Amino acid sequence: MSLLIKNGRVITASEDYIADIFIEGEKIKAIGKDLQMKAGETVDASGMLVFPGGIDPHVHLDMPFMGTYSSDSYETGTRAALFGGTTMVIDFILQKQGASLQAALDEWNSRATGNAVGDYSFHMAVTDFNEHTKKEIKHFIEEEGISSFKTFMAYKGALMIDDRQMIGLMEEVKQQGGMVTVHATNGDMIDYLVAKHRNEGKVSPLYHYLSQPEVTEAEASERFVDMADYTNCPGYIVHLTCEGALNAVRNATKRNQHVFVETCIQYLLLDASLYQKDFDGAKWVMSPPLREKKDQDTLWAGINQGLVKVVATDHCPFKWEQKKMGEKDFSKIPNGHPAIEHRMELLYSEGVNSGKITLNKYVEVACTNPAKIFGMFPRKGTIGIGSDADIVIFDPNEKHTITASSHHMNVDYSAYEGWEIIGKVKTVLLRGKIAINDNKCILDKGYGQFIKRSKVKGMI
Ligand code: URP
Ligand code: ZN
Ligand code: ZN
Fold first, then answer.
1. Are 9 and 49 spatial neighbours (Cβ–Cβ below 8 Å)?
2. pLDDT the model gives residue 458
3. What's the distance, CA 309 to chain centroid?
4. How much is the pLDDT for 383?
5. What is the DSSP string of 371-430?
6. CB atoms within 10 A of CB 289
């Protein structure tokens, strides 16, 4: 099977040129002007941008959480991702406290195997670090191809680990060549504030926001960075939202430390005023919560300064019926919002088109850096000879409106309802096959592969 993409404007993290791309099987075989190869299929990309398939390294599909399951399955979630130009996601396996990492991997495999349309990998969330868990780390990195270990400094009583476990995990992960990633907010402070607000009868979504002030994130981020420095373990902060937390990372650079930072599309585009909308605010109940305009400025600047390396989604959708579990108590609203489908288009429209970031930076934070940081580059995350033919053909001028009635995520509302954006995904290739064309998904579930990742390579 072969395919020729003609005359597209090819964008990578460092280049921008007009060329043809010849694909054979799953791989890119040639790139150049006026390629003369005979191909089974030809796609005209004149006037279009052609960039690598997006990689969203932070999603939660079919995840048991807060008494329910996130509403996108591997099938619906990875399909929706493809519609939006994201060809690969990294999901989170949650260890059950008292059980092994292997048991959790088995459980997640039973939900994912044979169901994904797009490619995927897993981060292993360690919620109970002990002598048994410690022995499993090496196997996960060397045999399973899972080299990142997620920790929660919050969700006390459910997922949170203490600093003693964190240090132990970091020492072992460092030794075996992996990375520790973190949800960095102070779980004890949040637990106190949640209880205080509930006791005072303050139970609307606004109090979710007020229970997680900026200091809870700044403090935990600094503590995580310090522990990573002490253990010399590669560290990655997920869904960083605010100035105080980014400054903790910035300060660490002064002692020559490097910690990777991810933010999510919602923290760049939405702000905490949405929590003033009575229970409607539940649509944006997520942890950490949305912040202030000044934090959005900090995050955009952080991207351009090279401190914020990745823009993900933390896609964790719940239907409105599920959100209503917290109608009388904000602490029972399942945390998370749907975004897997619109990350690439929103970041293009609000980032590139509005002049906040360059096209190369766009590809860097949405495609290339996730592949580099998480051990998949150059197989994924770029357009180069020998790379997987994961390619997006994108019309930079088409205007369209985001709405729940036309999205493909399995959730009955949109967090961006009515947003008019510019730039649309037209055609998506995954490992050489056309996945999306003419607003239709051509691939079946089961095409998506689990992608094994390598050890952490260090700085990028
Ligand atoms: O609100 C969120 N973020 N839900 C998903 C779990 C997490 O903390 O990432
Ligand atoms: Zn989190
Ligand atoms: Zn998350």
1. yes
2. 74
3. 12
4. 98
5. HHHTT-TTTSSS--TTSB--EEEEEEEEEEE--TTT--SS-S--TTTT-EEEEEEEEEEE
6. 28
**Burial (CB count <10 Å: 0-12, 13-18, 19+), residue 435:** buried
How far is CA 40 from each of CA 3, 225, 297, rounded to the nearest angstrom?
Answer: 6, 51, 47
3-state class (DSSP) for residue 43: strand
| Sequence-ordered list of residues with C-beta below 8 angstroms from that of 270, at least 6 positions apart, any chain | 284, 290, 415
Q: pTM for the whole thing?
A: 0.98
Q: Is 314 in the pocket of ligand 1 (CB under 6 A)?
A: yes
Helix (H) or strand (E) holding 359: helix 359-363
183 lines ligand 1 (CB under 6 A): yes
CA of 337 to the centre of ligand 1 (A): 8
Provide CB contacts within 8 A for 51, sequence distance 6+: 10, 11, 12, 362, 363, 367, 383, 391, 392, 394
Where the chain has pLDDT below 70, the residues are none
Q: What is the C-alpha to C-alpha distance for residues 423 and 83, in angstroms, rounded to an integer?
A: 13
Strand partners, 125: 94, 150
pLDDT at 153: 98
Contact 249, 221 (CB under 8 A): yes
Q: State which amino acid sits at residue 271.
A: D
Supply the pLDDT for residue 45: 98
Whole-number Å distance between alpha carbons of 394 and 436: 12
Ligand 1 centre and the CA of 314: distance in Å?
6
Q: What is the pLDDT of residue 277?
A: 87
Name 201's Cβ contacts closer than 8 Å, sequence gap at least 6: none
**How would you write 250-281 as a 3-class SS string?**
HHHHCCCCCCEEEEEHHHHHCCHHHHHCHHHH
- Closest of 251, 250, 355, 237 to residue 288, by C-alpha: 237
Q: Is 427 in the pocket of ligand 1 (CB under 6 A)?
A: no
Among the residues of 18-146, which ranges form H helices?
74-83, 101-112, 131-139
| pLDDT score, position 459 | 72
